[in-house]
Design goal:
The chain is α/β, with parallel strands linked by helices and about 475 residues long. It folds into three domains: about 110 residues, Alpha-helical ferredoxin (Fumarate Reductase Iron-sulfur Protein, Chain B, domain 2), CATH 1.10.1060; about 170 residues, 3-Layer(bba) Sandwich (FAD/NAD(P)-binding domain); about 160 residues, FAD/NAD(P)-binding domain (3-Layer(bba) Sandwich), CATH 3.50.50. The chain has 19 helices and 15 strands. The strands form four sheets. The protein has a five-stranded parallel β-sheet with strand order 3-2-1-4-15, with helices on both faces. A five-stranded parallel β-sheet has the order 6-13-7-8-9. A hairpin with a 5-residue loop joins strand 11 and strand 12. The longest helix is centred in the last third of the chain and has 29 residues. The radius of gyration is 23 Å and the shape is globular. This is NAD(P)-dependent oxidoreductase. Pfam families: Fer4_20 (PF14691), Pyr_redox_2 (PF07992). Keywords: 4Fe-4S, Iron, Iron-sulfur, Metal-binding, Oxidoreductase.
Length: about 475
């Protein structure tokens, strides 16, 4: 119910936390905006219209209680606001930083439709939980009463971490297996620090470790153990690997030195932020310093690469995308940030070939202009070549950021009986979220395809409930059999 602390959207303008000047922020990897001060957070939260049907919550994959914790924030009841925010999300401060709010909650805010500018929901969400960490309100993970059953989670990304947390609170012994040397998946290695500083992720991981979840880092299923071996160790398994196989470009010169994958490039940069030794970065092959960089793609990963190259001191950075700005899949806010920081966008253009200079090193991208035809199945207009409009872009480093597909998990895991669909994602029962293997569940991008972190968190929450129900039934059957 609305109070005098809310419904202030007519008299108070929309405001976001101030961004640092582009000329300053494009020289480091710190987050680009500060957090709201308390009075400003309360003021912005007070703009909420407290809708009878809160479209912000409806369009949030987690169905967060957004109007309720906005009202509590406006009233200065920050601890209660945090507890309500935390009730539906295992990572609210991470979602507040990296969710594309312009396409989700804020993009569906009623006062945005009225012309007053959406409530700055993501910034308030970040403020609430960062404050909770500082004030000690984030409580330790407390395991439920021991059930005598064990669960293995393959993948330490947002889906796997969320499921592991919920399953631990149910009382299960939980082991998380991940091929990287740090947990977090793309949160740790795929998203640059200027969007998500790494201590924000690591404190979440440390909380899970302190709660008794056992992490097996640097562990590859198929190399260190087969899926059958893991099934014999645990009462149930969850596959939450995400999708990591880069989509390919078929064009002459694609194998030239200096044409690299987006994830390799971002992982190298993020490892440097941890202080790791990264030979490919130190040697220059995954470092943009002094180079003319062309990034191919129009999603959020492409924006991450563009903005990373700027911070590494590239001589120039261009983003080549086959559609126009209105039809790109990435966040418009990210495009605006990249433009402010010095990136150039070459819209309606697609690579035709990669030109190489001496010793097979890339020297340019030959591209053709595109035009937009009829809409495709997604509603976006299909790009088609516009003959006679070719160009060459100078390039010493080309980053391919066209999205990700699933790896061949049945082959990698030594589990040919693991069912996948024609796209390579794992096939699950829609009700139980179980795969074709009894007691093996799957969630996140490896089921739905490359998607948003917030959807992975939602899937982790959902699959923990399905696994809990199945394991309780399994324990009941075993008691009867005994």
């Amino acid at each position: 119910m609305a109070t005098g602390s809310t419904l202030k959207f007519v008299g108070i303008d929309q405001a976001y936390p101030a961004k640092r000047d582009a000329d300053a922020r494009n020289k480091d990897f710190q987050e680009i905006a500060d957090r709201f001060a308390v009075p400003k957070a309360e003021e912005q939260a007070g703009r909420c219209s407290q809708c009878g049907v809160p479209y912000c919550s409806v369009h949030c994959p987690l169905h967060n209680h957004i109007p309720d914790w906005l009202r509590l924030t406006a009233e200065g009841r920050l601890r209660e606001a945090y507890e309500l925010s935390n009730a539906t999300s295992t990572m609210p401060e991470i979602c507040g930083r990296i969710c594309p709010q312009d396409r989700l909650c804020e993009g569906n805010c009623v006062i945005e439709f009225s012309g007053h500018g959406a409530v700055t929901i993501g910034s308030v969400e970040k403020f609430i939980t960062d404050t909770a960490w500082e004030e000690g309100w984030v409580e330790p993970l407390v395991p439920g009463p021991a059930r005598g059953q064990s669960i293995g989670v393959i993948g330490a990304g947002p889906a796997g971490l969320s499921a592991a947390e919920y399953l631990r609170t149910f009382g299960y012994e939980v082991h998380v297996y991940d091929r990287h040397d740090r947990a977090g998946g793309l949160l740790t290695y795929g998203i640059p620090s200027f969007k998500l500083e790494k201590p924000v992720v690591m404190r979440r991981v440390e909380r899970l470790k302190a709660g008794g979840i056992v992490f097996h880092e640097g562990f590859e299923v198929g190399r260190d153990a087969t899926m059958d071996e893991l099934r014999s160790r645990h009462d149930a398994l969850l596959v939450a690997t995400g999708v990591y196989k880069a989509r390919a470009i078929k064009a002459p010169g694609i194998g030239s030195e200096g044409v690299v994958e987006a994830l390799d490039y971002l992982i190298a940069s993020n490892r440097k932020s941890f202080g790791d030794t990264v030979p490919a970065w130190d040697g220059g092959s995954l470092n943009a310093q002094g180079k003319h960089v062309v990034v191919i793609g129009g999603g959020d990963t492409a924006m991450d690469c563009v903005r990373t190259a700027i911070r590494q001191g590239a001589a120039s950075v261009k983003c080549l995308y086959r559609r126009d700005r209105a039809n790109m899949p990435g966040s418009q806010r990210e495009v605006a940030n990249a433009e402010e920081e010095g990136a150039e966008f070459v819209w309606l253009s697609a690579p035709e070939a990669f030109e190489a200079a001496v010793e097979g090193r890339v020297s340019g991208v030959r591209a053709t202009r595109m035009r937009l035809g009829a809409p495709d199945a997604s509603g976006r207009r299909t790009p088609e070549p516009d003959p006679g409009n070719e160009m060459v872009l100078q390039a010493d480093l080309v980053v391919k950021a066209l999205g990700f597909d699933p790896e061949d998990l049945p082959a990698m895991f030594g589990a040919p009986e693991l069912g996948v669909n024609r796209w390579g994602t794992i096939r699950v029962d829609n009700k139980t979220m179980m795969t074709s293997l009894e007691g093996v569940f799957a969630a996140g991008d490896i089921v739905r395809g490359a998607s948003l972190v917030v959807w992975a968190i939602r899937d982790g929450r959902d699959v923990s409930d399905r696994m809990h129900a199945w394991l309780k039934a399994k324990a009941a059957r075993e008691r009867v059999a005994a």
